[in-house]
From TrEMBL:
Protein name as annotated: Oxysterol-binding protein
GO cellular component: cytosol; perinuclear endoplasmic reticulum; plasma membrane
PROSITE patterns according to UniProt: OSBP
Molecular function per GO: sterol binding
GO annotation terms (biological process): lipid transport
Keyword Transport: yes
Family, per entry: Belongs to the OSBP family.
Organism of provenance: Panagrellus redivivus
SUPFAM superfamilies reported in the protein's UniProt record: Oxysterol-binding protein-like (SSF144000)
Keywords from the UniProt entry: Lipid transport, Lipid-binding, Transport
Superkingdom classification of source: Eukaryota
Length: 397
């Protein structure tokens, strides 16, 4: 019998079987602001091999790609997508069991990967000094990101809610090797659960690697107490995650693998393969009905680039916010040629700025020692952003 701390609802089979195929419906997000974009993605084809054959072994994040390969989001907004399943942090903060807290935090960390199997478009590289703010009060948290370095390209972010602080930085290193793409993000993440004054840094989860038909959706991870295994977190990283005791998982693992592969061939749909005595940790949200026509964006992702209302007053972000970027806005509106021209203009402007401004310093983050972890060379949010004094914001667009 499986159980979950919060919705979505779960249909279970109390039939004594070690492994069940259960119907677990994807929940509809509580906050939906858009169900489509102003224009669908272009159906024009791009000769990928012609573009990439000279890029073998190189970092793709530094290469200029045709705008047809982009989606109308900045990488800073992609970082904001980490927060789509922020309720998992709330579940962790409400649990008095430290093992359950670890399970929900691991599910939160992995949930950011959920759309990666179908969403293959590339976010725009942020310009130096570019920022992004996600601030919908109904979501219950704040999120701010800034491009703090250009070479290497480093993006820093900070998010906070009543129960947590979550911050880090990412250098998205992506290399092409002819028949595969290697993604080795140089990243640091810190999550602080305020009710317990707990600091969480890393989780290690096993992915099976690519199969013949693409990425293998099966995933598993072990919760340890010292070296002693306590729980196994398992599931389909694009659909659901569950947990059970280490002993039960080892006992039923072979049967679980068989049932998982059988369902994988049919298509998961609303079905999940669940071991006995499991907790359902996470279920992917329902997607917009025409998601495939709009870059496979989720409801949450469609929210991220909504235009800032005119005359936003004190609530308006600084003019460095990527929602003001003309190339991203034009791509969202389906104007490919103007978007490509704006993208070239902004990249040229950045190159000229970087030559003149060797002494660039981020406005909202400072490189230093993290008081929570003691680690050096961490980008720490200075909180000044929330004073909302943006008159001297740089003109980067």
């Amino acid at each position: 019998m499986s159980q979950r701390l919060e919705p979505p609802s779960v249909t279970t089979s109390d039939n004594g079987l070690d492994v069940n195929v259960e119907t677990i419906k994807s929940p509809i997000p509580a906050v939906i602001t858009r169900t489509t974009l102003p224009a669908p993605a272009s159906n024009q084809k791009v000769g990928i091999w012609g573009l990439l054959k000279h890029a073998v072994g190189k970092d793709l994040s530094r290469l200029t790609m045709p705008i047809l390969l982009n989606e109308p989001l900045s990488f800073l907004q992609r970082l904001g997508e980490y927060m789509e399943y922020h309720e998992l942090i709330t579940y962790a903060s409400k649990s008095s069991d430290p093992v359950k807290r670890i399970e929900y935090i691991t599910a939160f960390a992995m949930s950011a990967l959920a759309s990666g199997n179908v969403r293959l478009t590339k976010p725009f590289n942020p310009l130096l000094g570019e920022t992004y703010e996600l601030n919908h009060p109904e979501l219950g948290f704040e999120f701010v990101a800034e491009q703090v370095s250009h070479h290497p390209p480093i993006s820093a972010f900070f998010s906070q809610g009543p129960e947590f602080e979550f911050y880090g930085s990412v250098n998205p290193l992506v290399k092409f090797w002819g028949r595969s793409v290697e993604i080795v993000p140089q990243a640091s993440f810190t999550l602080i659960l305020k009710p317990y004054n707990e600091t969480h840094l890393n989780c290690n989860v096993k992915f099976n690697g690519p199969g013949r038909n693409g990425a293998d959706p099966m995933v598993e991870g072990v919760v340890l107490e010292g070296k002693k295994p306590l729980r196994v977190i398992y599931g389909n990283w694009t659909e659901y995650l569950a947990s059970t005791s280490y002993e039960i998982y080892e006992e039923v693992k072979n049967q679980y693998n068989k049932e998982f592969r059988k369902l994988e061939k049919k298509g998961f749909g609303e079905k999940c393969v669940i071991c006995r005595d499991s907790n359902i940790l996470w279920r992917v949200n329902k997607k917009p009905p025409n998601s495939k026509d709009y870059y496979y964006l989720t409801y949450f992702a469609m929210m991220l680039n909504e235009a800032v209302p005119e005359g936003g007053g004190d609530a308006a972000p600084p003019r460095t916010d990527c929602r003001y970027r003309p190339d991203i806005r034009l791509l969202e509106e389906g104007a490919l040629d103007p978007a490509a021209k704006e993208k070239d203009r902004l990249e040229n402007k950045q190159r000229s700025r970087s030559k003149m401004r060797k002494d660039f310093r981020p406005k909202w983050f400072k490189l230093g020692k993290d008081p929570a972890t003691g680690n050096d060379n961490v980008y720490i949010f200075n909180q000044a952003y929330f004073n909302r004094e943006f008159a001297d914001a740089d003109d980067i667009f």
